[in-house]
Amino acid sequence: MKKYISLMILCCIYFSMSAQKTQYDLVENIPYYEIENQAIDSYISERCVLDIYYPKDSKDFPTVVWFHGGGLTGGRKEIPSALKEKGIAVVGVGYRLSPKVTVQQCIEDAAASVSWAFDNIEKYGGNKSLIFVSGHSAGGYLTAMIGLDKSWLNKHQKDANDIAGLIPFSGQMISHFTYRKELQISETQPLVDKFAPLFHVRKDTPPLLLITGDREMEMLGRYEENAYLYRMMKVLGNTSTRLFELDGYGHDMTEPAFPLLLREVERIRKEYKR
């Protein structure tokens, strides 16, 4: 009899916990440009859409806007599985790709999608003061560009400093190699101009968490670019920039980086609630 009662109690606890488990919804292929832009350009209609994965019946949750990698020439929007069921919303962004468009237009798309998040996340229950921007490789480059060069979001009447945190994974911090290809400059010839995050170092940025793979395993000096950005930020007196090097991982370093992203989101969320 005692065993039966204990079993019943355990069952009640289990079903109670199951009932309380957060449910998530996914809305796909939401255009983030105005309808007139889509009508003018079919490629915008095809690529400039996003998916939003969010906790239902929740309020004030953080949001991660996620840009896929692919060298600005490939890839497609994604909701990383490591970010699912973590109490946050994830906005997976598609953007136009070179050579059909210029790198400048890729950055314009990134800024437009983040602007959409600021304008719309509250409709889904999110907190627009807790919008984070992240991405891997080319996505990390886009993250850093729109977060450090305020002009891209200014075009949408948004302030890049309203982003809660920037978390680029293995992003290029000199001018992107696809942009250098547009200029017929070799991948191995460094360039730091207005299309380089390094060009836009400043003291007053959102919290910036730079994550790269092992310096001996990364591609094309990627760690060193991030380390130089980190150092120049410190020279300017920026106190919100940190750098993580993931020993033993090359450019494909997302698996150990996602927990760092989630930890950063939680750290800033807790500070916001104080």
Features:
disordered N terminus, 274 residues, alpha/beta, globular, 38% helix, 9 helices, 8 strands, eight-stranded mixed β-sheet
Explained architecture:
This protein has 274 residues and is of the alpha/beta class. The protein contains 9 helices and 8 strands. It has an 8-stranded mixed beta sheet with strand order 1-2-4-3-5-6-7-8, sandwiched between helices. β7 (208-213), α8 (222-235) and β8 (241-246) form a beta-alpha-beta unit. The longest helix is centred in the last third of the chain and has 20 residues, at 254-273. It is globular, with a radius of gyration of 20 Å. The N and C termini lie far apart (49 Å). Residues 1-19 have low confidence and may be disordered.
Short description:
The chain is of the alpha/beta class and 274 residues long. The chain has nine helices and eight strands.
Mean residue pLDDT: 92
What structural category characterises the helix and strand content? alpha/beta
How would you spell out the order of helices and strands? HEHHEEEHEHHEHEHEH
Radius of gyration: 20 Å
User: How many individual helices?
Assistant: 9
How widely separated are the two ends? 49 Å
Oligomer: single chain
Taken as a percent bin, the fraction of beta residues is 15-25%
Sheet with most strands: strand arrangement:
1-2-4-3-5-6-7-8
Q: Could you name the ranges where pLDDT drops below 50 across 5 or more consecutive residues? A: 1-19
| Largest beta-sheet details | 8 strands, mixed
Tertiary shape: globular
Count of DSSP strands: 8
What is the helix fraction of residues, given as a range? 25-40%
